[in-house]
Write a structure and sequence with these properties.
elongated, 2 strands, mainly alpha, 3 helices
Length: about 70
């Protein structure tokens, strides 16, 4: 079974940063959610990262078009 959270080494590889503050900034820029646990460690869910990089984390945008029929009434 895979670990629930990314390891410290995986976070460094993902963000290209070693310091927690810099990692948080990089994760924010990538749209990846993170939390800090009670021990002060950065936690990033493995499934969420897979969803973001797999394209599953994005919602499809609904195309909104004007209702021109409303102008005629």
């Amino acid at each position: 079974m895979k670990d629930l959270f990314l390891t410290a080494e995986e976070l460094i590889q993902l963000t290209g940063r070693k310091q927690t503050k810099s990692q948080r900034e990089a994760l924010d820029a990538m749209g990846i959610y993170w939390k800090i646990n009670a021990a002060g460690k950065l936690l990033v869910g493995r499934k969420h990262v897979e969803e973001v990089f797999g394209g599953y984390g994005k919602r499809e945008r609904r195309r909104v078009e004007p209702n021109f029929d409303a102008l005629n009434s």
